[in-house]
Structures are given as C-alpha cells and as structure tokens.
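Retro notes, item 3 of 5
We never archived the inputs for the glutamine complex last cycle. Fixing that now. Sequence and ligand:
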Amino acid sequence: MNIERIIQEVYQKIKGVDNKGKIATYIPELSKADPNKFGVHISTISQMNFGVGNYKDKFSIQSMAKVLSLSLAYRILGDKLWERVGVEPSGTAFNSLVQLEADKGIPRNPFLNAGAIVISDILLTHLENPKNDFLDFVQSLSYNSGISYSNRIAQSEKKVGYRNVALCNFIKSFDRIENEPTDVLDFYYDLCSLEMNCKELSELFLFLANNGNEIHSNKSILSESQSKRINALMQTCGFYDESGEFTFKVGLPGKSGVGGGIIAIHPDKYAIAVWSPKLNKKGNSYRGMKFLEEFTTRSELSIF
Ligand code: GLN
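Structure as it came back at the time:
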C-alpha cells in the first residue's frame, strides 16, 4: 500500500469538496487564522515522514496541549492523578460547567477545560518553574527546540476567559484547586498557546504510538500501560461530545484543538496531524475530521 499516494489523493479530494464551518472567534487572536489553510503530516514508527499542503505552517495547538500536560502530570503523580480527575466521557461541550456541581469539583475527564485546569494546578504544584519545565518536556519529545508559547494568543485568551475563570473558581470552591486561580489559568492559557506545525505535531506525538517511548532515543516518557491509558482517553474523550462520532468514522484515538488541528494516533504504527481552521458545530476541524475519515477508510489503518 502506498500511504503517500492515499494521503495525496484524499487531500486533493477533501480540498476540492467543501470547506464548511467557522473559525473560532471567541479567542480574538484565533480569528486571524487563514480559513483556507489545510495541511497534513504523518510520522510512522518505521520512520516514514510525509506531508502535504500547509504542513509547515505553525498554528495554535490549543486543546491538543492537554494531552501533553496530562502525560507530564501522569509521569509525575502516577495513578494518584485519578483522585483529582475522572476518566469518563462527558457528552458535554469542552467548556461546560454543568456536571461539576454534581461531581463536586472532580471533572469528568482531563480533556474538558475543567479537567485540564485541574491538571494545570497539579503541574503548578509539582514543577519548580512550571512554564519553563513544561516547555522543556515538550521540547524533549521533539526534534525542534524552536517550539514555543505564543504570548499574543495567551494574552488574547486571558482577556476573554470568563468561562475558564468560572470553571477554575467553581472547582476551587470544592477545595480541589491548590494554587491561586489566576496562576492556574495563566499557566493553562500558556499551555494552550503553544504553536506547532503538522510535522512537529505528528513527530512529537509519536511516543504515544510507540508504547510511551520517544522514538529516536527510545527514552521512556510513559510506561506502556500509561501510554495505553492516554490513548484510551483520547479515544473516548478526545473530541468532547463528538468523541463517539470520531470513533465511528475515523477509528483512532485523537485530540482536537479550537485552532483547527487534530492529532490522531495508531498505536504501534503512526501519528498523523491535520490542520484546517474552520470548525464544525462541536468545535472540531471540519476538514480535519473529513480527511481522517477518508484516510482511515481507504488505507484501512484504523484500530477497529
Ligand atoms: N484554550 C481553549 C479554551 O480554553 C481550548 C479549547 C479547545 O481547544 N477546545 O477555550
């Protein structure tokens, strides 16, 4: 099978069909993205790398960073982590407040904003220099020390982050946030502001296709079991209330971000990143979902 050819053909097909949806505008700086951008990059365990379209353009990875912060927190705390955050799909939007009251400040899963805010709190408690240490962790997974935060995006989100302020304060009211909410949120906005291109993303996330080991050095980032569990969470919770749909159509663990990126993992085989800024109603990249559905259907490279 020629994966490069399938990617080329599916890319051309999806590019030609339509480009529905809307760019995220609730974070003012995100609204400046070019809606026509469309990039794809795959990195395989057998060290094949291939990209098409705008795969070298950097964009805001937003919620995809939640997988990286979760990985670092899991590495530090081990299974004690699950005392602070659940592992159930929520069936609600990424920024929903509704379940927190019933769940007494324990977010359903780490990919909801509420869950990622708790993970940020944990990292703030355990890291000496949270912002630098987290970036070091991300860079250690990558070949590119040029990866960095965007202060412009972080500040833009901070100015309008009323829902995240509400979430963080609400969790704090249950005594389930240890640090000052403003510090937790500043760190959370920094994480979400990381900028990468599709190539960097697929290379970086390859450790989750490789049993938790960084691909070149074979350094263990997570144990095999931990890596399996992060993939399980991406499978069940990576697309908020569209996680079932993504599993049904694409059949891979994955994670989206409101910047229009999606990362998907095939354990033992590959990581693939897609970017197209226009989002569907559930906040996931419209063309990104379409591309991955067609790609895994034609290549038969999904886990089901
Ligand atoms: N930083 C964004 C927010 O908190 C992340 C949301 C996302 O990518 N789904 O709203």
